[in-house]
């Protein structure tokens, strides 16, 4: 009698901490209600603009970063090692879900892997799968397409998903149901000014030290010369305004790390092309602080649906002792609160200036889905089981060594 390899695999997998994959049922009657289209060319993607944006509105995820126009700009500035892979789920010819994805070759712990991630660029603040309200079958259609195309990928790295995402819990349920390994972990927080009331009430709610520091910043900078704050939404000379903003970025501390707008031509071209579109649509909100006519600080914002998104905030590093960024923050926050905008999102990362100004934060989550292939399972075991175990052992050893050193010191 031959051994039951299926049962044996289940036992070994459980011993190794692996959830043994459920055999995928291709005859899922539930999914017969939907069709999944795979888009891999820009020409095909461009034809989806109206239906795509209608879905964004109907999904309750009405953000500029989920709109078709944003993804077109991202697509045109993609890195060479990325292949667009857009999954469109239709029900009765209407789009009910979209997954804006790319496939790229990466190295994970020294091993080659084909990773599926979101179609984005470095300045994309949030990302997600877009699903029409009350249509969870859309998510099932996307996972179904992933399973059927399992030969194309090894793992999914879905980054920049906010804690408010409706897709995260559904992804875990549907992925495991179809034999895929799922994990998620917090990857940071987005800091913002939200529901802060009037400018006066917001400022009065800050500490006396905060208000005193702000007055000192204003007084110190204004002693340098003629200070002006330019606020551009529909500039006649957009190229000049962008040149001022890029000049500041090129003089910021980010330049040495290769993170300035001017460090990469593709990033600069993205901002130029998207700025023209954003200005036409009424989304652009660009601030430049000047001293004696020279730009020393800037912030590139988008305003959409009552919310402000700060994509870039830079200052001239040679002026850091005068806090030009804090000076500009004052004008920006005051303006947005006085005009009644609902939320001012300063972005991911616990930068000192964000912690000073923010009164709210939103957690950001990263989801990992591993293929049920042998290689996919191996990557899951390596990344989600072996590496954490090694870290735990190292931490335990450090604790033991630390305790030993402390004992030696106490014994004298």
Give a quick account of the main beta sheet: strands, pairing sense, barrel closure: 13 strands, mixed
H and E order = HEHHHEEEEHEHEHHEHHEEEHEHEH
Total strand segments: 13
CATH topology name of the largest domain, in short, is: Aminopeptidase
Strand content: 25-35%
| Helix fraction bin | 40-55%
Backbone structural class:
alpha+beta
Please, what is the CATH homologous superfamily of the largest domain?
Gcn5-related N-acetyltransferase (GNAT)
Shape: globular
Keywords for this entry:
2 domains, 412 residues, 41% helix, 13 helices, single chain, globular, 13 strands, 13-stranded mixed sheet, alpha+beta, disordered N terminus, Aminopeptidase
Secondary-structure map:
Blueprint: H1 5-15, E1 34-39, H2 42-46, H3 49-58, H4 68-76, E2 82-91, E3 94-108, E4 111-118, E5 130-131, H5 137-148, E6 155-162, H6 167-177, E7 181-194, H7 199-204, H8 208-222, E8 227-232, H9 238-250, H10 265-281, E9 284-291, E10 294-304, E11 307-315, H11 324-338, E12 343-348, H12 352-357, E13 360-370, H13 374-411
Parallel strand pairs: 4-6, 11-12
Antiparallel strand pairs: 1-2, 2-3, 3-4, 3-5, 6-13, 7-12, 7-13, 8-9, 9-10, 10-11
Helix pairs in contact: 4-10, 8-11, 9-10
């Amino acid at each position: 009698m031959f051994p039951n390899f299926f049962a044996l695999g289940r036992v070994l997998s459980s011993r190794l901490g692996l959830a043994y994959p459920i055999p995928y049922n291709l005859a899922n009657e539930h999914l017969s209600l939907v069709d999944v289209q795979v888009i891999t060319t820009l020409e095909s993607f461009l034809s989806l603009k109206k239906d795509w944006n209608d879905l964004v509105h109907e999904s309750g995820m009405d953000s500029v970063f989920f709109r078709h126009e944003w993804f077109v700009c991202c697509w045109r500035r993609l890195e060479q090692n990325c292949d667009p892979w857009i999954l469109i789920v239709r029900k009765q010819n209407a789009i009910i879900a979209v997954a804006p994805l790319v496939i790229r070759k990466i190295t994970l712990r020294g091993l080659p892997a084909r990773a599926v991630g979101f179609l984005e660029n470095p300045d994309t603040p949030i990302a997600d799968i877009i699903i029409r309200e009350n249509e969870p079958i859309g998510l099932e259609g996307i996972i179904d397409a992933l399973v059927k195309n399992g030969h194309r990928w090894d793992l999914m790295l879905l980054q920049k998903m906010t804690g408010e995402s409706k897709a995260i819990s559904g992804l875990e349920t549907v992925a495991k149901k179809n034999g895929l390994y799922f994990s998620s972990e917090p990857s940071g927080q987005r800091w913002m000014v939200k529901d802060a009331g009037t400018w006066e009430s917001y400022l009065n709610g800050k500490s006396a030290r905060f208000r005193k520091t702000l007055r000192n910043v204003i007084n110190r900078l204004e002693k340098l010369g003629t200070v002006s704050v330019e606020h551009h939404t529909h500039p006649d000379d957009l190229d000049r305004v962008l040149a001022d903003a890029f000049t500041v970025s090129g003089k910021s501390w980010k330049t040495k790390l290769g993170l300035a707008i001017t460090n990469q031509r593709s990033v600069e071209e993205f901002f130029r092309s998207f700025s023209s579109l954003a200005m036409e649509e009424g989304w652009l909100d660009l601030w430049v602080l000047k001293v004696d006519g020279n730009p020393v600080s800037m912030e590139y914002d988008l305003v959409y649906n009552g919310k402000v998104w700060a994509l870039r905030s830079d200052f001239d590093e040679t002026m850091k002792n005068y806090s030009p960024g804090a000076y500009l923050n004052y004008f920006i926050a005051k303006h947005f609160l006085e005009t009644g905008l609902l939320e001012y999102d300063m972005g991911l990362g616990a930068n000192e200036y964000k912690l000073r100004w923010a009164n709210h934060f939103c957690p950001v989550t990263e989801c990992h889905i591993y293929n049920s292939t042998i290689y996919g399972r191996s990557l899951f075991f390596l990344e989600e089981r072996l590496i954490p175990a090694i870290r735990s052992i190292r931490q335990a050893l450090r604790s033991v060594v630390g305790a030993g050193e402390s004992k030696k010191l106490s014994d004298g």
